[in-house]
Amino acid sequence: MTDSRAGVHTEAEIAEQPAVFDRLLAARAETAQIAAAIARRRPRFVLLAARGSSDHAALYAKYLTEVLLELPAGLVSPSTTTLYGARPDLSDVLLITVSQSGGSPDLVEVTERARAQGALTVAVTNTMNSDLTGAAELAVDIQAGREVAVAATKTYTATLLSLYLLLDAVRGGSAEHALGLGEVAATALAKAKDPVTEAVQRWRFVDRVVTTGRGFSSATAAEAALKLAETSYLSARSYSGADLLHGPVAAVDEETAVLAIAGEGAGGRATSAVLDVVGSRGADVVAVGSAAHTLTASVQVGVPVTAEEVAPIIEVLPVQQLALGLSVARGFDPDRPRGLNKVTKTR
Question: How is domain 182-329 classified at the architecture level of CATH?
């Protein structure tokens, strides 16, 4: 008999992530070969093209590029190519296009144009027979398997881990900080169940959410806002902790729910000061991450400590559980968000 419960596919795909991580880590030699080809080309700049959840994965990759490789990196605006026909000189540039489906026409066009303009192009995708992989010179398979729910869960984290393995290998790393992440993920999911349930009960009637984080966790905060908006139809906005204090904090009050992402490391320490200000304005704060226990919050959702550069792969797991729980508690089905399709085609 088919299980018709709301969120059944999302729940299953969240639970599948430890196995996906194990699969990716077992196949990391294939990613290392692509990294070696990149290293031989010695790019002077890295551009990242993506949409939706993949755009948040690209933001994570931007931090990895600038911190680990010490190369400048930027996020592409696809419309400069698709709408305005821009043809910048991309000699010695690495373009990484991130797309779970590999089917968005604008990302395919950006990749084709970049390759024609001299860039080394790499597709990071879950669909190796897609138009995107045909357009790119190299391709990384995130190996997440078929994802049924519209809201991305396992494809998002598989993309994060794939990007980490790729860029770590470019710098000559051995993936030491990623080894064992499957087991870490299983622990994180189990540990988060009770505090996430508490957070769902506190927030089931909220209307307005602000998500925030610093450093690598900025990507997690951005993904959190998207997940809450698309599955629970909340008005959710994401800000870097630094940007939040540069104006938007004025809109935070006792009617605002704040989701703070903070791990052990420089980003988490910087987030603590942000929450001192947010808390003084009466906001109800839920903190997620390995440093959650150090923050002043109504609910603290801890995860195991990892190296900061891989923390977004783990700290987003309770965020996915929260999005699932809130959606169902509010009477929605996160497997089928209204007005959305699994593959969104834009130009």
Answer: 3-Layer(aba) Sandwich (3.40)
